[in-house]
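Pilot study result, target chain (336 residues):
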Amino acid sequence: MPRSSAIAAPPVDALLRRYDTVGQPLSCRPVTQGLLNRGYRLSTTRGAYFLKHHLDGDQAAIVRQHKATRRLQTLGVPVAPPLEDAGGGTVAVIGGRCYALHPWVDGRHRGGAQLSTAQSRRLGALLGLVHTCLAQVMDGAASRSAAYDSADPEETFALIDELLELARGSRPRDSFDTLAEHRLLQRRALLAEHAGRRPPPGGGGGWVHGDFHPLNLLYRGAEPAAIVDWDRLGVQPRAEEAVRAAAIFFVQPAGQLELAKVRAYARAYRRAADADPAELAAAVHRVWWERLNDFWILRWRYQLHDRRADPQFPAASALAVWWTREYEAVCDAFAG
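Predicted structure:
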């Protein structure tokens, strides 16, 4: 999805008329823009709030997210559920657009490089808490029959050929295009070598946050203050979310994982989520294969003409190569 060329200002006055306790508006400033939503810091005569514009407009899904976070809060999970309006609702539909008002959380994002080993351990325990609490507050029926396939390497080879043509034809050509071409050729060779290791269809899904990474976790000091952006709440293999999150939190600029921190994180996650080593090892294999076949950053750049993710490409593309070479060490860090 390319970036929208025009951003409509949120209908602040109409929105605040729905609430009895938030005061009169003073200012409304954009704080984030993404594919799933837009966010604003809304200051009023009563304080500061986070105003969220849900771009997908799926009101039923948004309400489900809101109910989940309110229930999670009662179980001690650090979240920032939306405020209820005068009628008890949490989603305001104005002009066909969906909005929600949340308390403003003062905090900052912290990547794995900013976390100590002890804090990495607490991060794993936190994600384990999220998964076990979601199992309590969400309907479990959806997870019983779910099946999850893995990427088909033949489809990936076709995508690589398409992206190679686009990267080679990019004008003006820059260092990103050169690196993209190198990584595409390298990945094609790796896939040809490891095509026989494609994972079989998997199962064992449960409710997960769906997008657990540093930009969706706010810290106040050394402790997590709020897990935000629950737009991708859904049913997936839980251990795979744990592995994906670690691969984002603990990746270094050169594409290596900080395995000592990964080990601390993974052991704490396994205890909190009651996940055994075999489950984590299977998840490592499936996420490794996923990374080997994944080119979302290049698809954004070359197919969608959206370059916002470009800065992530050097580390992300190097990680797939390093992970393949250090496969056993990565498995041991998660499951050992």
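One observation from the pilot: Residues 1-6 have pLDDT under 50 and may be disordered. A full batch analysis is planned for the follow-on phase.
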